[in-house]
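Incident log, support desk, overnight shift.

02:14 A customer reports that sequence design results differ from what the structure should imply. Their input is reproduced verbatim below. On-call engineer (initials T.W.) acknowledged and began investigating.
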């Protein structure tokens, strides 16, 4: 039994607290005023990580940088741990993707470069089609999260079908894997694009094209390695399945864009 002298109440959830942290919500006891240390602790928690205290012990929670580093150097282990239940250890994948997209867009705008230069153009002078083209150009060039969220559902669906004999993972588990990998892909592509701008390489130059191809090949090999280790299949099997998965995903994305353009055109004609 807790004595009245040692029993304290958590200011967040009202639970009785014996130690430094609440056993129910994890909030530190006695912190009521916001100070500069509060800002520092929050920044460290977001980017580096902190500790989540349960009733018995403390486990480390990774921040954005440590989660991304873990995905980069040991992607298979990170994915397996998250799917196995160690979810509090890492930044949630959807949160991570939104934060990464926001940070990368800020950096790309700062350097005045585009990660992906989409160019939808109307073949005639129809004002309706021109407006649709302008809308698509703006949205896909300025909203990385939309592009990622358009690709990931199809990628997860393709993986679910292609790897149905290799794994019993559910669709949403493939979806979460895609969220994690998309965050890392956007960071690497953004870094390559910014590096090209900093080095003042013309977009159509040989060096810029070589750098772009190296980045794409590296990402493809990286994905193949993950698939091989995650599902324990051969290099050839992982490579063929990855190419097939990308082909299906690309076909679905193109079909979706065509449907969006057609739907917007019909909507404008009717209203």
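02:41 Re-run completed on a clean worker. Output:
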């Amino acid at each position: 039994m807790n004595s009245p002298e040692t029993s304290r109440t958590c200011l967040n959830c009202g639970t009785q607290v014996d130690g430094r942290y609440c056993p129910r919500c994890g909030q530190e006891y006695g912190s009521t005023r916001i100070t500069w240390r509060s800002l520092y602790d929050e920044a460290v928690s977001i980017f580096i990580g902190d500790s989540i205290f349960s009733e018995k012990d403390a486990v480390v929670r990774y921040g954005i940088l440590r989660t991304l580093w873990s995905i980069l150097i040991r992607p298979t282990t990170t994915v397996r741990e998250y799917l196995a239940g160690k979810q509090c250890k890492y930044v949630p994948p959807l949160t991570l993707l939104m934060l990464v997209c926001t940070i990368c867009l800020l950096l790309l705008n700062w350097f005045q470069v585009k990660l992906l230069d989409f160019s939808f153009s109307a073949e005639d002078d129809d004002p309706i089609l021109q407006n649709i083209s302008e809308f698509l150009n703006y949205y896909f060039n300025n909203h990385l999260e939309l592009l990622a969220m358009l690709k990931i559902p199809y990628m997860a669906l393709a993986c679910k079908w292609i790897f149905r004999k290799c794994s019993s993972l559910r669709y949403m588990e493939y979806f979460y894997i895609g969220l994690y990998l998309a965050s890392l892909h956007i960071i690497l592509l953004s870094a390559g694009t910014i590096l090209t701008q900093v080095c003042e390489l013309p977009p159509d130059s040989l060096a810029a094209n070589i750098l772009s191809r190296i980045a794409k090949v590296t990402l493809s090999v990286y994905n193949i390695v993950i698939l091989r280790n995650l599902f324990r299949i051969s290099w050839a099997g992982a490579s063929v399945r990855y190419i097939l998965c990308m082909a299906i995903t690309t076909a679905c994305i193109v079909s979706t864009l065509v449907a969006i353009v057609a739907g917007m055109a019909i909507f404008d004609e009717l209203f």
